[in-house]
Amino acid sequence: MQEEIRVMMDEVNRIASDTTFGGQNLLDGTYEASFQVGADANQTISFSMANVGGTANSVATDGGFTLSGIASVASGVTGNTLSGLAGTASGTLSFAANFVASTISVSTQDNAQAVLAGMDSLIAVVDKKRAELGAVQNRFQSTDKKRAELGAVQNRFQSTIRNQSNISENLEAANSRIKDADFAEETAKLTQAQILQQASTTILAQANQRPQAALQLLG
């Protein structure tokens, strides 16, 4: 059991030191980020992994979210002291002294009682930070929701603009048909008029020739 808990605590420390994103360590207590969420300056959402439940509870100087780092702020976050927890051995105990990966011990009943009594407080520290990160995540989701709502409004405007553009185009086409001549139709009418004019001229010419022919026969 002693070997198992030592290995598990080593794994906790390994996760704290190896968890990275974008080349930055997330759990060593140094990560701070500020994300631009608006169109103007200072419209940002920021968060820090250096503290838990306020700047007074800093894990940055004790290795971040390693076993020692979490233990260093356990009293500040939970309000508990290891020596005052039920079931712990008598004497002066502290989170910082009993929760060190290289020396944590459950090989005696007193040590095991101390570890069991303090573990809930360490879990509470992690839960507290997860709650803080959840609140930050909700702020991002709220921002995304507002952007989605604005996007929906923008889509409605764009749809209205496209509809108005179609109406304008149709009105211009109708106005053009009313005002502008149909060249094919007008050309056909002109040709028809020319043919009628030419036919009338021919008939008139022939009508004028018949009396002259009759006079020539009589003469």
UniProtKB/TrEMBL annotation:
Pfam families the UniProt entry points to: Flagellin_C
InterPro entries recorded: Flagellin, Flagellin_C, Flagellin_C_sub2
Domain Flagellin C-terminal, first and last residues per copy: 142-218
Main location (coarse class): other
Keyword terms: Bacterial flagellum, Cell projection, Cilium, Flagellum
GO cellular component, one term: bacterial-type flagellum
Localization: Bacterial flagellum
An example molecular function term from Gene Ontology annotations: structural molecule activity
Sequence similarity: Belongs to the bacterial flagellin family.
PANTHER family: FLAGELLIN
Full protein name: Flagellin
Species name: Idiomarina xiamenensis 10-D-4
